Amino acid sequence: MNSDIRNNVQNNVQKPSLSEEKGRICAVQKGHYTILFEGKELPAKLKGSFYEDSAENLPVVGDYVLFFHNPSGDSVIRSVCERTSLLQRPDQAKTGVMQYMVANADYTFIVTSLNEDYSFNRIARYASVALRGDSVPVVILTKSDLCSNVGRFIREVESISEKVRVHAVSAIYGIGLEELEPYFTPGVTICLIGSSGAGKSTLVNAVAGREIMKTSEIRESDSTGRHTTTHRQLFLLENGVYIIDTPGMREIGMADVQEGIDETFSDITELERCCKFSNCRHETEPGCAIKAALESGELSRERWELYLNLGAENEKNYAKKKQISKWAKAYKKHQGRMEMED
């Protein structure tokens, strides 16, 4: 066969084309992506144009994505579908830089145990982040069998916001688990956040009726646990419920969540609207509704100070975030000019 005939034969052979599919990001580790598709986990990489985009638009766990399916290697993520929710927080290692954590979570289960792990301040922070991200905050107070006054903690958490739901459970003894059944319906996505040892894994295993997530013992000295989750991961229960597990976080910063803070403390924002002056600083101004509420006991001093502290932290970190974003844009613009000159 001469070369011309051989070239014609090769040109007429159709190369297998990659089909475009829709899947869901179930894990992200150091730039490597895993897509959940038709019950299988597929390795994937990003299309080159993603690297020119902002971090907010990169895929995160929980995202639905369109991708080119490659059965024999890495699939290629082409685009991220529109999100219904997005949880974010400041990157603790890079203050002011946002860390985009989880997308499309219908409910955010804020799991905290009724021992030394319990922190009203931390729960309020988590609730603000969930509300800002358009996810419903559901506080799960675990290990209720170890607490002699569960009602007090339930009432305290309920006081955070009327938009926060709260349930006290004991996964070991099955107490209160029936209250969670309405959340575990097919197609729903539940994100779990909380400290290590708070009982996230035990809770999911109890609801699922079998061991889905690994558990670890807690240290009796400080009632905290070892990390059983090292990265965010999505998995699908047999009943069609998606669970997103996250590494344990004992602290969570505030940045770009003022809307969530306002929703969490809606009682305070309503009081502020009743002040005589629209620019009231709630210090010495006459007709201040905040001062009147503090004096009458309608608003507790602790709640007011928590609102102020979270707002100040959010404003500080958000200012840093905007400055870093400004520097990043200037640097990218400078790099573009350099490449054009070359």
Short account of what is shown:
The protein has 342 residues and is α/β, with parallel strands linked by helices. It is 31% helix and 24% strand.
Alpha-carbon Rg, integer: 25 Å
CATH topology name of the largest domain: Rossmann fold
**Number of helical regions:** 8
Strand order of the largest sheet: 10-9-8-11-15-14
What is the number of independent domains? 3
Give the helix level as a range of percent: 25-40%
C-alpha termini separation: 47 Å
Secondary-structure element pattern, one letter each: HEEEEEEEEHEHEEHEEEEHHHH
Shape: flat
For the record, the CATH class of the largest domain is Alpha Beta
Which CATH architecture of the largest domain? 3-Layer(aba) Sandwich
Number of strands: 15
Q: Class by helix and strand content? A: alpha/beta
DSSP strand content: 15-25%
Averaged pLDDT: 78
Give a short account of the largest sheet.
6 strands, mixed
Q: What are the low-pLDDT stretches, counting only 5+ consecutive residues below 50?
A: 217-227, 253-257, 318-332, 334-340
- What oligomeric arrangement do these chains adopt? single chain
CATH superfamily of the largest domain: P-loop containing nucleotide triphosphate hydrolases
Can you give a write-up of this model?
There is one protein chain. It contains 8 helices and 15 strands. By secondary structure, it is α/β, with parallel strands linked by helices. It has 3 domains: 19-80, Nucleic acid-binding proteins (OB fold (Dihydrolipoamide Acetyltransferase, E2P)), CATH 2.40.50.140; 86-245, 3-Layer(aba) Sandwich (Rossmann fold), CATH 3.40.50; 258-325, Ribonucleotide Reductase Protein R1, domain 1. The radius of gyration is 25 Å and the shape is flat. Residues 217-227, 253-257, 318-332 and 334-340 have low confidence and may be disordered.
